[in-house]
Amino acid sequence: MARVAGYGGDLLAPGVIAGIRAWSMDDTVEVHDSSGFDTGQDKTFLAGQMTWSGSFSGFKDGAPLAKGTELAAQFKESAVAAQKWTGTIIITTVGSATAVDGIVAYDYTFTGTGALTAPSG
Hints:
Order of helices and strands: EEEEEE
Distance between the termini: 11 Å
Low-confidence stretches: none
Oligomer: single chain
Number of helices: 0
Number of domains: 1
Shape: elongated
Strand content: over 45%
Radius of gyration: 18 Å
Mean pLDDT: 88
């Protein structure tokens, strides 16, 4: 499988959020223990609800996003249009950092609400 360079990636919500340098996301499913007396020593499980969350960070460029902000987001893996994750996020944490010899930076965590559309290839 060919590698994809991340430098063409982006975060759109609904336009480009300026200054973003990185994002990460976890797309998971809850798993419930469905073991009963009839399963003996072998545990059994059932898939539950889907959940997704993540974070993004970058340099300050304009006003920071506020906690509780809900955004329709597109997380682009690269410059290839089909390589993106799409869904609605809620900002849960806002962090900031600055140093005398650095650039003011922000980092955000989010929780996805509703379905997440994953890239097709």
